[in-house]
Design goal:
Length: about 350
């Protein structure tokens, strides 16, 4: 899931500074508009098999993955089923000898924390801590393996949420600053680690729209990170750029960069990036991509009206919509949180 890491942390700051309330939960109807975007009968059969054999690792893993993928296609009402079966799989194979349940479920639980649903936060921390190698953590952000750096960052993100939930707002902000510094150190030491660069860019642009101080600094850093990511797209890990897994991931990240540039008032650079979005000729023609392309046309037509608007941040799509936006082929993304000037709607 592309945006959940940054979105989870962003909502910590929302709560700390009191600028916004957590968003209302998304419903499947908002994404599917009553359509069946997956084979719902097959999911029913998968649940029947898994529930009949709770100790069958294969049945739990397959059911968990199927319901997770359905959730990311827009059937967000199936999230609880996905969690249940993936959690069973982890309990049956905690050392990941056969399946990657801890990693998959840890990431998937960000779909909760992205909307400040912290009921499974302790489980998420346990999952990521199980993936950490102590000797790697001891090396620090500059020397850690990339995957271990990501896992450590997710642990820190969850810990920040836990501090906020306990009313420790200042401590949460201090830990957030430390995480930002770790990302800066990582980027300086490993300019070729494009996956970490993508995470950092998403992170900084999200916080540029949430934290009321240091906006321009975060915006500049976020744009710089994503320029590197977009200009070195083929250096991303194969799974991170796989259109089979996330058909719209490049379009979403390209939009983030264009929106960031427009928020900075860099009209011509923004125009160039919006044109790149439109001209991408190797992307699946999905429903979410059509929405992104339509938005790019709109921004180009009204560059002067939007230039310098910090209301463009954090970039759309975010939260649960961002997860579906990257992964779905047929969903319709809700646009109630998309910034459009009233006279241009």
């Amino acid at each position: 899931m592309r945006c959940s890491f940054a979105c989870s942390l962003a909502l910590v700051i929302v709560g700390c500074v009191g600028r916004l309330d957590p968003p209302a939960p998304r419903t499947a109807e908002q994404f599917t508009q009553g359509r069946a975007l997956v084979d719902l009968d097959a999911l029913t059969r998968a649940r029947t098999r898994a529930d009949a054999a709770p100790d069958d690792l294969g049945a739990q893993w397959n059911a968990g993955l199927a319901h997770m993928r359905a959730t990311l296609q827009g059937h967000v009402d199936l999230r609880d089923h996905a969690e249940r079966y993936l959690e069973r799989a982890w309990a049956l194979d905690p050392s990941a000898e056969q399946v990657r349940a801890a990693e998959v479920l840890g990431r998937f639980l960000n779909i909760r924390s992205a909307v400040l649903d912290l009921r499974k936060l302790e489980l998420q921390i346990a999952l990521y801590e199980a993936l950490l190698e102590p000797e790697q953590v001891a090396l620090g952000p500059a020397q850690m393996q990339a995957q271990q750096f990501h896992f450590a960052s997710f642990v820190t993100a969850a810990e920040i949420l836990r501090r906020y939930d306990r009313g420790q707002s200042l401590a949460a902000l201090r830990q957030l600053a430390g995480l930002e510094q770790a990302m800066k150190i990582r980027a300086a030491a490993h300019p070729d680690d494009i996956d970490s660069c993508a995470m950092a860019g998403n992170f900084e642009l999200t916080f540029a729209g949430i934290v009321p101080v240091g906006v321009e600094r975060r915006l500049a850093r976020g744009v710089a990170y994503l320029e590197i990511q977009q200009d070195h797209w083929e250096q991303l890990s194969p799974r991170a750029r796989s259109t089979a897994i996330a058909p719209n991931v490049r379009s979403v990240f390209a939009l983030f960069l264009a929106e960031g540039l427009l928020a900075r008032g860099e009209r011509e650079q923004a125009r160039r990036r919006y044109v790149q979005i439109i001209d991408l000729d190797d992307q699946p023609n999905t429903g979410p991509r059509q929405q992104i392309v339509a938005l790019a046309h709109h921004r180009i037509e009204h560059l002067d009206a939007y230039a310098g608007s910090h209301e463009l941040l954090p970039p759309w799509p975010s939260g649960v919509t961002g997860c579906v936006g990257c992964h779905s082929r047929e969903a319709t993304l809700p646009t109630d949180d998309l910034y459009l000037l009233p006279e241009l709607r």
